[in-house]
């Protein structure tokens, strides 16, 4: 099927989603570690529009954006470990919730991390509302994919390690086990799956990643004032 | 929900480009459906029932199962009704189509819409951004008749607003974004798109769009 390279870094959860998918499918790959403060010519060539990671390079062609990469991986290596649900409606709803996770759950969690003062409380409430909707989606199921993990589990997977890191950097709690018992239970099952566990970075790396990002954003804000 | 032959309904709003693309997708595939108009400024209980998460249109209801989000609906149509495919077959081409459809909405449409909702420096920047994004699209299209090649497809439907709605927004905002001389590929594609038998004759009225978006511009400028 041709060599597979992933441009990325394992402290970044969109990159780890891709590694999870490749591992579950038993696809050999090479990681090319990127320094986001000094992006390589290869990254700029392979993703000239957004200049972001992850980038999957397969047969010398780049595929960008983690959600698109997951679908590509599922379509190319379709005989091993299907990620997308088989039923077209379930497949579409998985795409819908994946979009919701990236556009709402992730974004509101970051907002809560960055906010200060009164705005922080409002941001925390908004973030928790998105988690409530995810909590309802996991009701009655072991995983979002059913009995085994699938596409949507990989998309939500960042909450098992990166959300606690965001909480630590932001000095707040979003996902507590009493308010979101089902989501919490899901994280415990998800994180113990070998293919998942093997790709997790040390938590300090994730904390460092977000703290560096937050410091940078705050320095930008300070320079505007 | 009971599975059965409850048919296909599309809940939409007359001026929404997200709704238009789904309508045209269904017509291209010859899917029979019932259209239900929703007044987005006076929403019915139906919409909050079938799309409680975002409350937006379009929503496709197939056999009683509701599905929101235009790009997701179009993929679903292709998976359930496999004739007259909208998507390419090759996995890489499909990834490309999905990438550019996100670019269409998150970059082109967002910046173009902002020119309608803003003025002065914010509007100037939005115009520059929109032009920059269109330059990428122009390059992507190249000299092809459609984004899909010889036949209209998913990416044409996702980019379609450029052909018929962007000119209205430009007029309302008194800006120029898609200059035909600077964007010859897109200018040719615009004609190919609006002249396509499925699209032609099923476009919203230009006068009605102008009136609607002029009102929208006033509303947004008052909020600034």
Question: Would you mind describing this structure in some detail?
Answer:
- The complex is a heterodimer of chains A (225) and B (224).
- With 225 residues, chain A is α+β, with helices and mostly antiparallel strands.
- Chain A is built from ten helices and four strands; from the N terminus they run E-H-E-H-E-E-H-H-H-H-H-H-H-H.
- Chain A has helices spanning 13-24, 41-46, 66-76, 88-114, 118-138, 151-156, 162-170, 181-191, 194-198, 203-224, and strands spanning 4-8, 30-33, 55-58, 61-64.
- In chain A, helix 1 links the parallel strand 1 (4-8) and strand 2 (30-33).
- Chain B has 224 residues and is of the alpha+beta class.
- Chain B has a four-stranded mixed sheet with strand order 2-1-3-4, with helices on one face.
- In chain B, helix 4 packs parallel to helix 8 (166-173) and helix 8 crosses helix 10.
- The longest helix of chain B has 27 residues, at 91-117.
- Chain B is globular.
- The N and C termini of chain B lie far apart (44 Å).
- The mean pLDDT of chain B is 96.
- The A-B interface holds A 49, 58-59, 61, 63-65, 68-69, 71-72, 75-76, 88-89, 91-93, 95-96, 99-100, 133 and B 53, 62, 65, 67-69, 72-73, 75-76, 79-80, 91-92, 94-95, 98-99, 102-103, 136.
Please state the oligomeric state of the protein chains shown: heterodimer
Class from secondary-structure proportions of chain B: alpha+beta
Largest interface: A-B, 23 and 21 residues
Percentage of β-strand residues of chain B: 5-15%
Low-confidence stretches of chain B: none
The helix content of chain B is 55-70%
Number of β-strand runs of chain A: 4
Largest sheet of chain A: 4 strands, mixed
Overall average pLDDT of chain A: 95
